[in-house]
Design goal:
homodimer, 421 residues, alpha/beta, Rossmann fold, 2 domains, five-stranded mixed sheet, four-stranded parallel sheet, 35% helix
């Protein structure tokens, strides 16, 4: 067996506008160290690719394609939502992973994802201590929710923040023009079921030079209809209009999601609904203002066309750092973004033990939310602003961005067996 | 009274990402012809500004601010939804307009809007023939709906088309990555209640180099649930995922809007709802696929950050042309975009009599829609593609686009009277 071990890389959970930049960082850096790292095999659809021995040979991709990953949104190798149970509960799965890794001489495991993925990566890292199988596992952080601990911020979030701040500013200019005789309230639903980081970015649309009346509804603040409606009325009376940025995770005092309103259609069928129309209906019923509402959904996390340059650079740097960490002999760690200062913004790469990261959720601190619970503080503003800095436009062809699709050629299977999840 | 007449300019109806570029074209061109055109007074909130004698003195704005209008979305002077009745029905309104114009020595009337606004502009133009009041009225086309006749396309539409095509491509890359274990269907609701031009742009996300499974639901094609669900199943079985672009104006065979589903909340209150969640619920009920849906709403028409360069240039050129038309003595006309050729795209400014434009709606031709009613034809593609060409990025400061807000200083009132609408 070749003494130079191969690497396994996979993308996990919800994808982002910059997760492929991390992939580029891993693959390009590994290619620079051919003396220490052999092939980089990507898992097709995350860890599932490893379990099915469905590996993608990234070495077959030309350098030009890999470099285009830097400006291509989504997960180039496919992602998955699949959480590994503990080794005790699920010996067969871990044995299968080791069989596949062993068959393909894989000694390095890079998992690119959020909190659940960090937990999966930690369990793989423990294979070396628990079973003696020689593997070094590094978790590369990624989540638009920005809820991972120890890292100052998470790749993917800065670009969503930029998109939501820009969209809120643009839509607010629009409604301000219409308010005299038409729409007075605009409502934008954003992601973040448990943490209000993305919602907070909506408040960034307003700043000292361009003031905009904005109400933010955070998942961290129990929703109170009376207080909210009063604030809408107050802002419309004062400014003529208002924009509302509402997190999908907003819940009432009893902890029930606002989006869970038991909607039924004309036939009595229960209906899915977002929180934006729910809030819109409250404003219409209580105040009668003409309004519009939007739900950004996937548009916000895939909007590579207006990604934050800072975010792209950090995503790439973390992929690069992951490779350098295994070369330096590390296992069971996650490279982090450490903030050095805000003005001018400076950051560096740090590391944290994976055992401290897994299954910990970083919510928006209360002192990042204004006293009244409807906006953000200067402290939050100082934190968010650098993450949105810089534009990193993709190349365009015929009016549309050119995003790469890799060949994704499979690696020949070496195990005769399949594995059912 | 000064022999050099002043001009009145106003913005009407829904605003766009580029209507302010037309305003810049009007104001900058008028400033170049100070020997023929005096001040340019803008109506605050459209024609309503004239009726209230609430005029904005654009001459007070520095050239640097006016030039920034070119990259600022929304209506810088405010817009309105207010349709003038016929002169017979509404003599008082027209008399008031003439009193205000006369008091401020206004001889040129520029109205920047869509179909209803063209009708208003036509009626103002008729004042010269009906009453002898010396006025030249020019309509400057603007509408994201792209439904004005005689002009090849309408400023505002090209930028929405670009935004929807890019967003559909980005979200499709996202869902493709998730499809194996999670989301298989993505649904995007777009504007266009009566015409499917914007929905058609969603199909542009897929092209020969980047094929994407997309189903478009047009307002021109009666919705059939059975056929739609079968097409969703077919595309998911073949590609693993599908993106659905649905126009807000989609209606069933009986002509009823799909969005009008008689939704009620837990308390039995009727609820507003978009068409995206309605379609999402059908897919969930009939196929059980995990799905996501988005509603672009105002985000699509205010997205100046990714405006089409072609659109910006045409919007500006039409404002410029309007001024040149009055200088050449024209009245009651609308400057148009005339397409010379597709490859390479060339266009020029033409003109059409306003009487032929008012109240005519240009729908998507049937031969622009594919046989099965779920996509677009090559003919439609060849029409849409040039309108999305080129990027025209606004300047950024601290991660956000810098959009201008004018001083909008009022012109001193000369009439002692007010006017109630």
């Amino acid at each position: 067996m070749n003494p130079i071990k191969n690497a396994f890389y996979a993308q996990s959970g919800g994808v982002t506008a910059v997760i492929n930049a991390s992939a580029a960082g891993v693959i390009e850096t590994a290619r620079e160290h051919g003396d220490k790292i052999g092939e980089v095999y990507a898992g097709r659809n995350g860890i599932i690719g490893a379990l099915h021995e469905d590996l993608i040979n990234t070495s077959a991709e030309p350098a030009s394609s890999i470099s285009k990953l830097r400006h291509t949104p989504s997960g180039a190798f496919g992602s998955c939502r699949y959480k590994l149970k503990s080794i005790e509960e699920n010996r067969l799965v871990y044995q299968r992973l080791m069989d596949v890794f062993n068959a393909h001489n894989i000694g390095y495991f890079f998992y690119n994802g959020g909190g659940d993925s960090a937990d999966t990566c930690l369990k793989v890292a423990q294979l070396s201590t628990r079973t003696g199988y020689p593997i070094q596992a590094i978790h590369i952080p990624k989540t638009v929710d920005n809820d991972l601990p120890f890292t100052d911020n998470c790749p993917g979030f800065g670009s969503v923040a930029k998109y939501i701040a820009i969209s809120t500013r643009e839509a607010s200019f629009d409604v301000a023009s219409m308010a005299e005789t038409s729409t007075k309230v605009f409502i934008l639903e954003v992601m973040g079921r448990h943490a209000g980081w993305i919602a907070a970015a909506g408040a960034m649309a307003s700043d000292d030079r361009t003031e905009i009346p904005i109400i933010v509804l955070f998942p961290e603040i129990p929703f109170n209809r009376t207080r909210f409606i009063a604030e809408v009325r107050r802002k419309v009376e004062h400014h003529g209009y208002v924009s509302v940025v509402v997190s999908e995770g907003v819940a009432d005092e009893s902890g029930r999601f606002l989006s869970d309103q038991g909607l039924v259609d004309a036939f009595g069928h229960a209906q899915l609904g977002g929180v934006a129309p729910v809030v819109a209906n409250m404003v219409k019923q209580d105040l009668g203002f003409k309004l519009h509402w939007a739900v950004a959904d996937y548009l916000q996390r895939s909007a590579r066309h207006i990604a934050s340059k800072t975010d792209v650079e950090q995503a790439y740097a973390l992929g690069k750092a992951a490779v350098e960490l295994v070369i330096s002999g590390k296992n069971s760690v996650m490279p982090t973004i450490d903030r050095i200062r805000n003005q001018p913004y400076e950051w560096k790469i740090g590391t944290v033990e994976l055992s401290r990261v897994a299954n910990v959720e970083k919510k928006l601190p209360r002192d990042y939310i204004s006293e009244d619970g409807f906006s953000i503080t200067r402290r939050c503003r100082d934190y968010l602003q650098p993450l949105m800095l810089g534009e990193d436009y993709p190349p365009y062809e015929g009016g549309l961005p050119e995003y790469v699709r890799l060949e994704n050629n499979p690696v020949g299977k070496k195990l005769g067996t399949d594995f059912s999840l």
